Amino acid sequence: MKRLFDILFSFSAIVFLLPVYFVISLFIVFDSKGGVFYKQMRVGKNNMDFGLFKFRTMRKDAHKQGLLTVGGRDPRITNVGYFLRKYKLDELPQFINILNGDMSFVGPRPEVRKYVEMYSKEQMLVLSVKPGLTDYASIEYMDENDLLAQAADPEKAYIEDIMPAKLLHNMRYIKDQCFITDMKIIFHTLSKILSR
Question: pLDDT (tens digit, 9 = 90+) per residue, 156-169?
């Protein structure tokens, strides 16, 4: 049932949002040099890598300066990118990942390989399910960039504090997962985004 929901609603969302995709693409092109989309390798179910799609929000080759985005006004983020990130609009292309079967609407957010290599044996359990567009951790850490900006060493804070806390939320989701839980998480996520 979950896969059927993912297929029907991701396809519907892509079709419905085509005009929005087009407008966002124009803003990105006129705001800075580079492509419209950004593809980053993430780790999915069964520890398999896949390409996660996003609208590009950073300047060309900005990823070479580090994987973590620190603060809402990270200088690598474009003007349009700041707006897209604030309202999570940069995540819209992931409906393609959901339609392809790489992701689901709800599930642990996929991490990059560098940080997955740091998981304990117990934490690797999060790779037993499909990653998602949102989950408990996404809601709890929607302002993660601002938290990292307050740290003396953002990467250390992410590895030692934020990542383990997010993984605990992921474990909780795996234990609680069902259709009703997914619906609650989706509506809670939308509510939090709209209130920003």
Answer: 999 999 999 999 99
Q: Which one is predicted more confidently, 71 or 149?
A: 149
Q: Which two tokens stand for residue 165?
A: 């806390």
* Beta-bridge mates of residue 39: 53
Candidates 174, 10, 163; CA nearest to 101 is 10
Question: What residues does each domain of the chain span?
Answer: 2-194
Provide the pLDDT confidence category of residue 67 given band limits of 50, 70 and 90.
low
Q: Report the alpha-carbon distance of residue 105 to residue 101 in Å, rounded.
A: 10
State the DSSP H helix or E strand holding residue 52, giving kind and residue range, or none if neither.
strand 49-55
* Closest CA relative to residue 75, chosen from 57, 96, 55: 57
Q: Strands, DSSP E only, in 56-124?
A: 104-106
Residues 175, 74: Cα–Cα separation, whole Å? 36
Of residues 176, 86, 173, 83, the one with CA closest to residue 132: 173
Predicted model pTM:
0.90
* Residue 89 DSSP SS3: helix
How far apart are the two ends of the chain, measured CA to CA in Å? 32
Alpha-carbon span 191 to 196, nearest angstrom? 9
78, 60 Cβ separation under 8 angstroms: no
| Nearest-angstrom CA–CA distance, 91 and 84 | 8
